[in-house]
Amino acid sequence: MNEFSEALLAWYRQYHRRLPWRENPDPYWIYLSEVMLQQTRMESALPYFENFIRELPTLEDLASVDEERLMKLWEGLGYYSRARNLKKGANYIVTEFGGCLPEEPKELQKIPGIGPYSAGAIASTLYQKPVCAIDGNVLRVFSRLYRLEHSLPGAALTKAVREKVLALLPHESPGDFNQALMELGALICKPNSPDCPSCPVRSFCLSADAQDVSDFPRRKKKTPPKEEQHTVIMLEKDGEFAVEKKSTGLLRGLYRFPMTVGHLNSSELQDLLEGKGFAIKEIHFIGESSHAFSHRIWRMVLFHVLLEEKSHFYEWFEKKRLAELPIASAFRAVKQWLGL
Fold first, then answer.
1. Catalytic residue among 3, 6, 23, 34
2. What is the pLDDT of residues 106-140, one digit of tens each?
3. H helix runs in 169-249, sequence order
4. Among this protein's residues, is 103 annotated catalytic?
5. What is the pTM assigned to this prediction?
6. Same-domain pairing of 256 and 159
């Protein structure tokens, strides 16, 4: 084993976080954790993982869960396509692999929602396959170790890092090595304010020697998120509220409250609703809210509208039932106002 790996693994075995899937490396737990941690911070994913294990304790339970319950369990975690792929993946594992995760990364990548990184992490952790698992943490760590000039994101950087990881990967414990690199990026080599004095591989780091750690990885200029204006409408009749379930687009599989493009005032909203045949008793402005998606930001104004009659355009539920539905987290302010 090389000196870099020895230093990294010694640190990892002493300081790694005690996580459920590390304490109990059950294949289902590892699969679930890997999907949840795609584009999500550990502290955000952990309570969702624990709840999933309580509610869906086996892979077969996940494979057979209905979509509404699945999306409710995932509600607030974001990137909802992961939830749909999680169920598809569980079904695929059950039907194609007899309920057992395959050992080879190429086979793992046949599972919906499993890409090269997750396949490498699962194969090395579960089966000690000598393959790498390159995530954002590893890209950052190796960009700084070698002062790589390739920009993030980019295939050239991933390729360069993969080559360097494989050159250091110990065949004796590839799973721990991959976990250690990710842990190093999460705990020490952070995006901002890296703790270089505490780094177990500080002596190998070229950017630490050059005192320009914060300059790496190099980054391409980001396109600023697009801002959109919307008016969100809480339509109420006799204690029931209108919602609709999206079957396509950004919020597919989730419920949302009625909304329209642009910021309307009370008079404009009344004209819009009456033009669509709604009989209005009262309109109340509730406030403003915003929600950031990965590439867009919704700026919303919120209204509560009491109606004379229900509309067949929507589904209608009392608050108790609304609380059970998977409602998009973009409407958190509405849910708070309703006491959900």
1. 34
2. 999 999 999 999 999 999 999 999 999 999 999 99
3. 174-187, 206-210
4. no
5. 0.83
6. no
